[in-house]
């Protein structure tokens, strides 16, 4: 089955850089998308097509990919970045969609 | 503005049925694929089911195949999911989501409706 693996948690101090990884065997062939979810709110897409940023999303947020791993990078982390982050992809036929298990970002 | 509003959630006993609805507005509904995504309390996101813009193709995650049916009425701008033989593990907030017109991601989410399966 198609699976994406994320670390359960990442912690950084304010102003530092947070990196959240997402791994999957099919990732070299499929795009990955990243969502941010704050408590009590619906998720919001923050990166699409591995590294594209939707309008209105902070330039401090970026994405990259290498082989079977994609990475979400948040530079100059602020308290407002504390949230759950999910990667998502779909198979080439668009019939099977999957989320990673999610990563809780804690700003110390 | 683009809006998705879910309804139909509630408390239901195991083995019973429930139908969720999602009213769409602010965009041309029959141009977009639509899906359901759920989130169990304190857990991560789980893709549930999807349907093409015209309803001609539907797909499901393995755990709901044969129990859930996704459908849409483009004349009413409404998405549905019929959930039968509900299990305790189906307890979750169910989100109605729109698929981006060009890429395979969800660019618009409803506020979610809570389904609780409990005896």
**What's the alpha carbon Rg of chain A, rounded to whole Å?**
13 Å
Strand content of chain A: 35-45%
Strand tally of chain A is 9
Shape of chain A: globular
Distance between the termini of chain A: 36 Å
Number of helices of chain A: 0
What class would the helix/strand composition of chain B place it in? mainly beta
Beta fraction of chain B: over 45%
The total beta strand count of chain B reads 11
Category from helices, strands and their pairing of chain A:
mainly beta
- Largest pleated sheet of chain B: 7 strands, mixed
The chain-level mean pLDDT of chain B equals 97
Oligomer type: heterodimer
Q: What's the rounded overall pLDDT mean of chain A? A: 94
Low-confidence spans of chain B? none
DSSP helical segment count of chain B? 0
Low-confidence stretches of chain A: none
Largest chain-chain contact?
A-B, 25 and 22 residues
Based on CA atoms alone, the radius of gyration of chain B comes out at 13 Å
**What's the main sheet of chain A like?**
6 strands, mixed
Helical percentage of chain B: under 10%
Describe the fold and architecture.
The complex is a heterodimer of chains A (108) and B (119). With 108 residues, chain A is an all-beta fold. Chain A has strands spanning 9-12, 18-23, 33-37, 44-47, 61-66, 69-74, 83-90, 97-99, 103-107. The mean pLDDT of chain A is 94. Chain B has 119 residues and is mostly beta strands. Chain B has strands spanning 3-7, 10-12, 18-25, 34-39, 45-51, 58-60, 68-73, 78-83, 92-99, 106-109, 113-117. In chain B, the strands form 2 sheets. In chain B, strands 2, 4, 5, 6, 9, 10 and 11 form a 7-stranded mixed β-sheet that branches. In chain B, strands 1-3-8-7 form a 4-stranded antiparallel β-sheet, with no helix packed on it. In chain B, a hairpin with a 6-residue loop joins strand 9 (92-99) and strand 10 (106-109). Chain B is globular. In chain B, 39% of the residues are buried. The chains are: A mainly beta (108), B mainly beta (119). Chain A binds chain B through residues 1, 31, 33, 35, 37, 42-45, 48-49, 84, 86, 88-90, 94-102, and chain B through 35, 37, 44-47, 50, 57, 59, 61-62, 95, 100, 103-107, 109-112.
């Amino acid at each position: 089955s198609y699976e994406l693996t994320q670390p359960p948690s990442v912690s950084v101090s304010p102003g530092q850089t947070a990196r959240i990884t997402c791994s999957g065997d099919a990732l070299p062939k499929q795009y990955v998308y990243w969502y941010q979810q704050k408590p009590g709110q619906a998720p919001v897409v923050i990166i699409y097509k591995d590294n594209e940023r939707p309008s209105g999303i902070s330039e401090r947020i970026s994405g990259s990919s290498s082989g079977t791993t994609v990475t979400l990078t948040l530079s100059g982390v602020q308290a407002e970045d504390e949230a759950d982050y999910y990667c998502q992809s779909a198979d080439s036929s668009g019939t099977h969609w999957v989320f990673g298990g999610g990563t809780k970002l804690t700003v110390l | 503005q683009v809006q998705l509003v879910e309804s139909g959630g509630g408390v239901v006993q195991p083995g019973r049925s429930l139908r969720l609805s999602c009213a769409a507005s602010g965009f041309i509904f029959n141009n977009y694929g639509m899906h359901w995504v759920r989130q169990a309390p304190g857990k991560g996101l789980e893709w549930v089911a999807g349907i093409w813009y015209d309803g001609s193709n539907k797909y499901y995650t393995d755990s709901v195949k044969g129990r859930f049916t996704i459908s849409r009425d483009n004349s009413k701008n409404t998405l549905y999911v019929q959930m039968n033989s509900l299990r305790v593990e189906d307890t979750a907030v169910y989100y109605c989501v729109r698929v981006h017109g060009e890429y395979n991601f969800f660019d618009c989410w409803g506020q979610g409706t809570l389904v609780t399966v409990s005896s």
